[in-house]
């Protein structure tokens, strides 16, 4: 594929230094890919590694695959195929970065963090040997961007979680990874590059795809963050250093936009050759190789029949823009950033001028005049003991962020089935509660449809459907002269409302009119259902990622054919991406999750208007990023019961009271079983719950949650999804027993009553 043209969107921006602004017509270029990785790799991120003198350069790349997850290393000078030099399976990850001279003795490391366990791992470069860490660091979050600066690295996740870390030698030949400080992250950053000379981070944002610049050189104050005006559609970012000037390359989708000082447009590049190209995770290698005389650009790429990593030559861009090549560049010669000082116990920073008795600032896990006293965030929430810098020894039954999560083991897990799962629902059998079923979605193309399980977690049925995202159950719907139960989902393969009949034995079948159209151009995402207590009419809610909510009335012809009518169209939340929702029928409330921001409540009737109530928001100390699933645990009265909300970024679930003002109760997470047979939940998505007693296995109700990485007892990760099944009593009992939460749920709730 040497001659394949790739529609790469790059933007080069001239920054710093003294330069003359030349007003000229924008330059137009065409750029070809030089090499691609073989096969299909679930790709997100690249980092070019500059070896010590005489060694070969490497392309460091993530692997987000379920069974192959970890990272890969490729020789950077190959063409047309990049040769794999290493593959470490350490759990699926989105991120990888090099750390130069992290040992202080010239040794380089690779840093990565797996989504399966949130553990920061270090490997030596270039041999990929495991680097021992004295105190393993577990940093909960859904991490989307990383960049390094000497022995520092910066990690950005969802829901405002962003930190700077320091890697340094510890006792006995091991190393330690310490939190330096929290960073401002009002949006979700998905691209990152460092300017060592200016002590700045260049960041790309997820939703609006804007570019931001953050000053990180001053350790005394909060870093400043500014959005760059006029630069849009960014999916990745990297720097090129040329003399006393730096150029910023911004990856987009199908063109190359070149900016000069003050972000003046200098030119564009339109490339072709592959269909449906998307690139991200941009990196630059400036040194000379036999294939790349002026260096190379690396990126994660997805295109028609292609997914993995690619490289392309820098030379055409440098020539066209008259950028002097700097093949002598090496990050080893760049400034390494502020250093801790002995006067601050090597746990803090001294001022660059003057000589005050106190330190300018301490690392995040230390305090005191000389930064010698370990401290813990939130004082371990009063449920543990601070035993080291931001390291809590939690009381029994507690864990997670600062010992603030109740830890619960799953009772069962479903058989592994299908590809990318998302959302569950529980169907309560009218024949016997013990014959109830768990219905789950498979939204990937591979295995797309609905899976049905019994209460032991055994697979009963696999039903093909058009990539359903969320699923809900409708009870007792009158279809012609029949009364039936239905499963409802928004189907992404053809952008439709999908409805299926649930038979008396809990299996799924088609029903006339089960596929209903949506407006042209509408892309379905989440969904939920509502039976009005005022009119007894049945409604369907569906949303798009752009927060457009549509409400449909579901009816039937006399012959039993389903039909839908649009009755309401509104924006949910503040306009950010939405997905999970649930309706409290008895109170006519629609609860919806705005993934990057908050939990909201709206009226569920068609004439309730568009004004919403913000119940909980990220940063309030209770709700964590990002909101995915939302479900209702029914109570005996409309004022009793609970709302459960899944927080994907930290794999936890927040509990709120159903009654106004929807008081926060607690947060729980699902950990691995003591016998090792059932793994912990990671990167969770959908959730459902019923309070109804379902026989001896779940006499006080059932909670079912999505698990993104189904880790196997014998090691490794399954390529197929599983869902965890947990007794409601186990969650509301244990450390929360004194709150008497089970007194306010309805173990006899009958959805058909």
By CATH reckoning, the class of the largest domain would read: Mainly Beta
- What Rg, in angstroms, do the CA atoms define? 27 Å
- So what's the overall shape? globular
Number of domains: 2
Strand count, sense and barrel status of the largest sheet are: 6 strands, mixed
Helix proportion of residues, in percent?
A: under 10%
Structural class: mainly beta
Q: Report the CATH architecture of the largest domain.
A: 6 Propeller
Tell me how many strands there are.
58
Strand percentage, roughly?
35-45%
* Strand line-up across the major sheet: 2-22-21-1-20-19
Q: Which stretches of 5+ consecutive residues score pLDDT under 50? A: 1-22
The number of helices is: 2
Report how far the terminal alpha carbons are from each other.
63 Å
Mean pLDDT: 91
Instruction: Give me the CATH fold name of the largest domain.
Output: Neuraminidase
CATH H-level superfamily title of the largest domain: TolB, C-terminal domain
Properties at a glance:
753 residues, mainly beta, Neuraminidase, 2 domains, six-stranded mixed beta sheet, 2 helices, 58 strands, 2% helix, disordered N terminus, signal, B-propeller_Phytase, Dev_Signal_Modulators, 3-phytase
Structural overview:
By secondary structure, the chain is mainly β. The protein folds into two domains: 11-326, 6 Propeller (Neuraminidase); 407-744, TolB, C-terminal domain (Neuraminidase), CATH 2.120.10. Helix content is 2%, strand content 44%. The strands form 15 sheets. It has a six-stranded mixed sheet, covered by helices on one side. A six-stranded mixed sheet has the order 32-33-55-54-53-52, with no helix packed on it. Strand 5 and strand 6 (70-75) form a beta hairpin. The radius of gyration is 27 Å and the shape is globular. The model is unreliable at 1-22 (pLDDT under 50). Residues 17-321, 398-736 form the BPP domain. Disulfide bonds join 376-386, 394-403. Residues 1-24 form the signal peptide.
């Amino acid at each position: 594929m040497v001659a394949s043209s790739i529609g790469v969107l790059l933007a080069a921006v001239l920054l710093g230094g003294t330069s003359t602004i030349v007003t000229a017509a924008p330059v137009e270029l065409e750029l070809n890919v030089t090499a691609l990785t073989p096969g299909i790799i679930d790709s997100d991120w690249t980092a070019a590694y500059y070896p010590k003198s005489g060694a070969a350069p490497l392309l460091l790349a993530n692997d987000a695959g379920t069974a192959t997850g970890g990272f890969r290393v490729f020789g950077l000078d190959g063409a047309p195929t990049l040769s794999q030099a290493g593959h470490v399976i350490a759990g699926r990850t989105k991120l990888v970065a090099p750390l130069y001279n992290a040992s202080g003795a010239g040794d380089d490391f690779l840093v990565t963090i797996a989504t399966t366990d949130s553990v920061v791992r270090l490997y030596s470069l270039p041999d990929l040997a495991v680097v021992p860490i004295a105190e393993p660091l577990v940093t909960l979050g859904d991490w989307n961007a990383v960049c390094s600066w000497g022995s520092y690295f910066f990690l950005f996740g969802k829901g405002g979680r962003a930190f700077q870390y320091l890697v340094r030698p510890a006792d006995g030949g091991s190393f330690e990874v310490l939190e330096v400080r929290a960073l401002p992250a009002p949006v979700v950053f998905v691209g990152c590059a460092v300017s060592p000379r200016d002590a700045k981070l260049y960041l790309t944002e997820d939703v609006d795809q804007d570019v931001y610049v953050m000053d990180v050189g001053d350790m005394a104050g909060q870093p400043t963050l500014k959005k760059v005006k006029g630069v849009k559609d960014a999916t990745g970012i990297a720097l090129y250093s040329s003399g006393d000037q730096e150029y910023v390359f911004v990856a987009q989708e199908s063109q190359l936009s070149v900016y000069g000082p003050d972000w003046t447009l200098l030119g564009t590049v339109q490339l072709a050759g592959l269909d449906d190209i998307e690139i991200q995770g941009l990196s630059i290698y400036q040194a000379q190789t036999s294939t790349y005389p002026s260096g190379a650009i690396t990126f994660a790429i997805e295109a028609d029949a292609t997914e993995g990593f690619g490289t392309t030559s820098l030379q055409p861009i440098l020539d066209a823009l008259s950028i002097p090549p700097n093949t002598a560049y090496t990050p080893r010669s760049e400034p390494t950033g502020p250093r801790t000082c002995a006067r601050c116990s090597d746990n803090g920073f001294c001022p660059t001028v003057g000589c005050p008795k106190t330190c300018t600032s301490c690392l995040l896990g230390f305090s005191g005049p000389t930064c010698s006293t370990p401290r813990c965030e939130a004082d371990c929430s009063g449920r543990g003991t601070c035993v080291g810098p931001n390291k809590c020894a939690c009381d029994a039954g507690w864990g997670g962020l600062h010992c603030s999560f109740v830890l619960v083991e799953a009772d069962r897990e479903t058989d592994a089935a299908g590809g990318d799962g998302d959302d569950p629902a529980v169907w309560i059998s009218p024949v016997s509660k013990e014959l109830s079923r768990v219905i789950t979605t498979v939204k990937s193309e591979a295995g797309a449809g609905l899976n049905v399980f019994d209460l032991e977690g055994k697979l009963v049925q696999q039903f093909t459907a058009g990539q359903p995202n969320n699923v809900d159950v409708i009870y007792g719907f009158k279809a012609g002269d029949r009364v039936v139960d239905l499963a409802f989902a928004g189907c992404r393969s053809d952008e439709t409302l999908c409805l299926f009949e649930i038979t008396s034995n809990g299996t799924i079948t088609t029903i006339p009119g089960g596929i209903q159209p949506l407006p042209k151009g509408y892309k379905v995402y989440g969904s939920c259902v509502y039976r009005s207590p005022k009119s007894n009419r049945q409604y369907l809610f569906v949303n798009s990622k752009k927060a457009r909510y549509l409400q449909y009335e579901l009816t039937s012809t006399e012959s039993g054919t389903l039909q839908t009518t649009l009755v309401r169209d509104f924006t949910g939340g503040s306009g950010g991406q939405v997905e999970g929702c649930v309706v409290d029928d008895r109170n006519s409330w629609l609860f919806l999750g705005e993934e990057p921001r908050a939990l909201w409540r709206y009226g569920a009737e068609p004439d309730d208007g568009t004004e919403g109530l913000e119940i909980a928001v990220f940063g309030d100390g209770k709700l964590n990023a990002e909101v995915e699933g939302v479900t209702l645990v029914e109570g005996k009265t409309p004022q009793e019961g609970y709302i459960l909300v899944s927080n994907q970024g930290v794999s936890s679930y927040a509990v709120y009271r159903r009654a106004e003002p929807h008081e926060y109760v607690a947060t729980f997470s699902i950990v691995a079983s003591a016998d090792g047979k059932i793994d912990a939940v990671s990167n969770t998505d959908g959730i459902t719950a019923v309070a109804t007693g379902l026989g001896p296995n779940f006499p006080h109700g059932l909670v079912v949650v999505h698990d993104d990485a189904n880790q196997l007892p014998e090691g490794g990760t399954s390529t197929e999804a599983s869902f965890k099944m947990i007794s409601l009593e186990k969650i509301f009992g244990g450390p929360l027993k004194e709150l008497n939460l089970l007194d306010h749920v309805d173990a006899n709730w009958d959805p058909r009553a």
